[in-house]
Amino acid sequence: MKQFSNLTEREILALAISNEDEDSRIYRDFAEGLAEQFPASAAVFSGMAEEETRHRGALFDLYREKFGEHLPLIRRQDVKGFIKRKPLWLMRPLGLDEVRKYAATMEMDAGRFYRKAAESTRDASIRELLLKLSEDEDRHEALAESLAEKHLTTEARASEADSERRAFILQYVQPGLVGLMDGSVSTLAPLFAAAFATHKPFETFLVGLAASVGAGISMGFAEALSDDGALSGRGSPWIRGLVCGLMTTLGGLGHTLPYLIPDFYVATVLAVAVVVVELALISWIRHRFMDTPWLQATFQIAVGGALVFLAGILIGSA
């Protein structure tokens, strides 16, 4: 890799042209990725991409005047310590707040680069353009604000906030809730059946651990393979699968861990208390994110959990 301080003026301009070209393409990728759910924000990033394209044109005009038509190949990764970009634009779906923060960082990095590059050049016209571009990059936040005022009306902002909330629910809350319900309820029967059949806490713990981990693996793969998210808008299947699998395992482990206590009756009382907390948490999540009436959510979860709990006790006591 080459040190930035060792770059020639020709290489500095070539690097700046490459940087502007990549930034423009990143903004266009942002616009494309946001267009379906956040059309107003997509228009903002399209406008910023056009501004980067104009910067590239100005740089290339000066380069052609100074050094001719041939543009040497020099990229960000060829220069030690130069701007690094995490490939956020490749991820789908794009998070609106994360994209806006990413864009702000891009502008700050670009402005810093132009100021540093201006210090390294002796050519007055090159220095003048680089300093002008650094000022433009610093003003891009104002450009983004003006574009936002133009495209992001109150109605558009409300619509995009609603779309972002729906995407969060579809990708994280829904699979997490399904996993938590399955882990908390489905493991009750084998856990308490083993507890009342053996009256041995550690053996009961092993049964609960096996049931929780097995259910987590099963639910994780089932969620990941059920829908690729392309048509439903539910996002990455592997993220959903991971969320679902982890929450399933945690749901089962919550009332399994008390059986690490050697005293059977103390462990059982604590496990029952944990079950009550788990069912209350599931009811709250359904009420908070799924718009289920509080009494309805509580009744459905309480009845289902109680039936599975009783089934486990009856089978274990037989």
Structural features, described:
The protein is mostly helical. It folds into 2 domains: 2-152, Ferritin; 160-317, no CATH class. 77% of the residues lie in helices and 1% in strands. The model has no long low-confidence stretch (mean pLDDT 79).
Rg calculated over all Cα atoms = 29 Å
Helix content: over 70%
> How is the biggest beta sheet arranged?
2 strands, parallel
What topology, given as strand order, has the largest sheet? 1-2
- Element pattern in H and E: EHHEHHHHHHHH
Query: How much strand content do the residues show?
Result: under 5%
Q: Helix- and strand-based class?
A: mainly alpha
Gap from first CA to last CA: 73 Å
Overall pLDDT metric: 79
Number of individual domains: 2
Low-confidence stretches: none
**Anisotropy-based shape:** elongated
Number of helices: 10
User: How many β strands by DSSP?
Assistant: 2
List the helices and strands and how they pair.
Layout: E1 2-3, H1 9-34, H2 39-67, E2 79-80, H3 96-120, H4 124-151, H5 154-186, H6 188-198, H7 201-226, H8 237-254, H9 264-289, H10 294-317
Parallel strand pairs: 1-2
Short description:
With 318 residues, the protein is mainly alpha-helical. The protein has helices spanning 9-34, 39-67, 96-120, 124-151, 154-186, 188-198, 201-226, 237-254, 264-289, 294-317; strands at residues 2-3, 79-80. Helix content is 77%, strand content 1%.
